[in-house]
Amino acid sequence: MVKKRLVLKFPHKLLDKPIVYKLIKEYDLVFNILQARITPNEEGLMVFELSGKKEDYAAGVKYLQDNGVSIQPLSQDVTRDENVCTHCGACVSVCPTGALTVNRSSMIVDFDPSSCIACELCVKACPPRAMKVKF
Ligand code: SF4
Ligand code: SF4
Fold this sequence. Notes:
Strands 2-3-1-4 form a four-stranded antiparallel β-sheet. It has a two-stranded antiparallel ribbon with strand order 5-8. Strands 6-7 form a two-stranded antiparallel ribbon. The protein is 20% helix and 35% strand. The two termini are 24 Å apart. Helix 1 runs antiparallel to helix 2. The mean pLDDT is 86. The chain is an alpha+beta fold. The protein folds into two domains: 72 residues, Alpha-Beta Plaits (2-Layer Sandwich), CATH 3.30.70.260; 54 residues, Alpha-Beta Plaits (2-Layer Sandwich). One iron/sulfur cluster binds next to helix 3.
């Protein structure tokens, strides 16, 4: 039996395809969706826990990858280097979960790691590279 938390990124062309239904029906996997969003660049983003028999899990993951879905484990930690962050706000609009928000009274950008799903969108968006991924 395998049970893993994963982050899936669906390209726009796959958003209306019954991918999740197929995983459950054809690969006999148990699918627990933890978060689902459409990102600002219209990519589907889903965090879920997937469990099932080892062979079914492997076949289901292959099915996703063959269909252009990007998969990454939710074991990465995203951190912010407070000495580098300039609170420019560039990361706020790309964060799909609201883990990065602007405090309107202080105009400081707050980072809430507990809401972070390690999608890494802020890492690319941050001009001084303050957002980092630990493996
Ligand atoms: S984009 Fe980078 S520098 Fe700007 S607020 Fe976000 S973490 Fe800080
Ligand atoms: S990796 Fe960055 S953009 Fe993605 S959820 Fe975490 S803080 Fe938000």
